[in-house]
Amino acid sequence: MASGAAGSSGTGQLLSAHFLSLPTFRPFLIFHESAFTPAGRKKRYTGMKRLHPFFWKFGLLLFAAFYLPKGEGKLSAQPANDGCLQAIQLTDLDNWCSAPDAFSTAGATESYQASPFCFPLDPSLDVWFAFTAQATDLHVTVIGNTSINAGGTLNDPQFAIYSGDCTNLTEIACASDAFDQNIIESFAGPLLPGETYYIRVSARYEQTGTFQLCVNNFNQAPSPSSDCATAAVLCDKSPFTVESIQGAGLDTDEVDPSSCMQDEFASVWYKWTCDNPGPLTFTLTPTNPTDDLDFIVYELPNGVDDCSGKEILRCMASGENIGQPFSAWEPCTGPTGLSLSSSDTVEEPGCDPGDDNFVAHINMESGKSYALVVNNFSNTGNGFSITWGGSGTFVGPKTDFSIEPELGAQCDINMVTFTDETVIPPGMTATGYNWYFGQGANPATATGPGPHDVVYSSFGHKSILLQVETDAGCSVTEVREIFIEPCCDPQTALDIQLDDTKDPACYGESSGSIATSATGGTPAYQFSIDGELYQSVGSFAELPAGEYEIFVQDIKGCMDSVEAVLQQPPPLIVDAGPDQVINLGESVTLEGSIQEALSPAEPMWIAPLGECVTDPLSCYNCLTPLATPLVSDTFYLSATDLDGCSDIDTVFVEVVPVRPVYIPNAFSPNGDGINDYFTAFGGAVATSIVKFQVYSRWGDLLFQTGSIPLNNE
After folding, report:
1. pLDDT tens column, 71-81
2. Tell me: the pLDDT tens digits for 551-583?
3. Same structural domain, 447 and 523
4. Is the same domain home to 385 and 467?
């Protein structure tokens, strides 16, 4: 703030002058610290390309205050998996869940593929995932903004599951949240091991947000039962998912009312016999994170076929403390099971101190039989997934088969023979053998132990599946992989053509593209831009400038390639000029310049905003405006050309807070022409005298006025 000081003289009058306070200036333009340097330093923003001119002219001023979501420091970019061809590859399919908020549809665009049958008519702003099946059944869950154990911010999620490739997809499952649960799940199958499948995730009403993805690719266990007597018998510890739990079966008195579970009303039972002794653990994960699962583990002293006299080994029923906040019983929600790190054998209903939704593992003994009952206390009808741990194993067939030859077989030429070598335990009989020999196999499937002779029409990795069923009601599955060598006939003349190239639009940008096609050979074709990862279409996008070699291969292993070059365009360079230093109230000419790229560029200055009485710049779409800032601050010069390329640079103007004000301490208004007049003198920073008062030496007010100019006697 500026203020004046009064002096005195034995012969003059006492003066009091109050000057107009200089306007305060609070910069409005505040950028996130990760993208911009502190005041006083100059920085070029090289990453800000191809932003629409409207953004530079108007949107940038509102960037920090209005555009960035809470906790975000950057613009919502297009997701890396926005299209089918950019699908994220999932490799862990064994009851896998991503972290909450791991994926997002923010910035996604609508895919060109037809909308799935269960999606509403709204545009589908979707992201894509892909995986290679390793088992026959699939369970997918997308968890968004649920009330408990939220997986993200996405509301009303939906997804579809496809087989085929991105140019020829076949929809095999679809699910859409029509009830605002913000979680959706679906099963799909049977899948063919070794085949590629796609998951397309979006939300209703064009909503976007973050989500958690859970995928379980498994070989289905026998159909569950709600009674112990007819419970499914498990022959191995493969993970599986139960689609739903409804009802308590025909025998509604199987659970002791004095146990922690007290009763069953939405339950399933499983039984098994121990083969190799050792600890057993498992984890039950509800498909709906808000569901409360309870369970009991029994020993069956009379064998796996007799549930009478069953003895409780572990009981887990912890859950909500009714009337208390969620934070008080949160440890007793979500997954549950047996754990090596737990020591308690029972957790009663509610959530007591120390409860964690898990109880201690059991140590199985060889030859003894056990049972597990799982009850969905929430009674929603939703199911769960289960994974097993520990060194103890279950009695069941040890599936195996031989392959002859294991190596070196060529497509179209060599026959491969598969023969069952499964070991069936005593007292158990194999009742069925189901084979799947992989893509391009002839025959594709078979039954019986074999031997089965197969010829492949295509080369590459093949997944072979054998499922063995037993009279105990259980089934076990073995999946192995072989590689079939190429059988290329040069006479088929596979040829790749370069159809089109598009250079990046802006310097340093990854916006180029290459399009190729193929003829001859034996379709279907696979294309690659690196010789390693292949796709079913010959188009490649989002490429930087450079030299490329595009490969094509057909199903026989024939190959061809073509070279392509994407040129780097010249850069658009914006220079806001050197930093400047001025005194308060002075002006300075900013020295902006633009080095254009391939098309004309329009400059645009962006000045700080605040409580200013004057505009800090004389013009905004010129290169050399006159700047009159009142405090030290940064000015931004941007430019956007006709190709949509943009660049931005800054100049820092330091304002030295010099406030020169000069007031004579006496005058003699006696008409003698000497020192008869008085006023205050100031530099450019001061504008006028707000109040002017003259007092006698005795303190009497002799004269006063206000709002008079400076430097004028």
Report:
1. 333 344 789 99
2. 999 999 999 999 999 999 999 999 999 999 999
3. no
4. no
One-character DSSP codes across 83-103: SGGGPEEE---SSEEPPTT-E
From its phi and psi, is residue 571 left (phi > 0), alpha (psi between -120 and 50) or beta?
beta
**What H or E segment, with its residue span, contains residue 55?**
helix 53-57
Identify whether the C-beta of residue 625 lies closer than 8 Å to the C-beta of residue 589.
Answer: yes
Task: Classify residue 491 as exposed, middle or buried by CB count within 10 Å of its CB (0-12, 13-18, 19+).
Answer: exposed
Residues 6+ apart with CB under 8 A from 19: 2, 3, 4, 661, 680, 682, 686, 688, 689, 690
From residue 146, alpha-carbon distances to 106, 139, 187, 239, 705 in Å are 18, 19, 20, 25, 70
Could you tell me if 495 and 479 lie in one domain? no
- Domain co-membership, 524 together with 644: no
Query: Could you tell me the sign of the dihedral formed by the alpha carbons of 205, 208, 210, 215, in that order?
Result: positive
The runs of H, that is alpha helices, within 84-159 are none
Q: Look at residue 44 in the predicted model and tell me its pLDDT.
A: 38
Q: Any idea what the CATH number is for the domain that residue 177 is in? A: 2.60.120.380
Contact 411, 485 (CB under 8 A): yes
Q: Give the dihedral of Cα atoms 439, 445, 451, 453; nearest 10 deg.
A: -50
Question: Side-chain half-sphere of 523: how many Cα atoms within 13 Å?
Answer: 7
Residue 289 belongs to domain with CATH number: 2.60.120.510
Q: In the block, which residue shows the tokens 């391939």?
A: 598
Rounded Cα gap, residues 5 and 660, in angstroms: 12
The encoded tokens of residue 658 equal 């010099």
Q: Distance between CA 330 and CA 289 in Å, rounded?
A: 12
Q: What is the 3-state secondary structure (H, E, C) of 605-672?
A: EECCCCCCCCCCECCCCCCCCEECCCCCEEEEEEEEECCCCEEEEEEEEEEECCCCEECCCCCCCCCC
State yes or no: pLDDT of 247 exceeds 80.
yes
Distance CA 569, CA 50 (A): 13
Nearest to 105 by CA among 86, 76, 127, 121: 127
Of 23-27, 211-215, 322-326, 354-358, give the lowest mean pLDDT range. Answer: 23-27
Tell me how many domains the chain contains: 6
C-alpha–C-alpha distance, residues 535 and 166, integer Å:
9
Q: Could you give the CA distance from residue 68 to residue 176 in angstroms, rounded to a whole number? A: 29
Listed residues 484, 502, 527: the one ending a domain = 484
Given a cut of 70, whether residue 424 has pLDDT beyond it is yes
pLDDT of residue 670: 82
Q: Looking at the structure, do residues 477 and 494 belong to the same domain, yes or no? A: no
pLDDT at 667: 76
644 domain residue, yes or no: yes
Residue with tokens 């109880």: 359
pTM summary value: 0.69
Tell whether 519 and 628 lie within a shared domain.
Answer: no
- Is residue 30 pLDDT above 50, yes or no? no
How does DSSP classify residue 65? I
269 with 259: CB under 8 angstroms? no
Residue 687 lies in domain: 14-22+659-708
Nearest of 245, 483, 284 to residue 377 by alpha carbon: 245
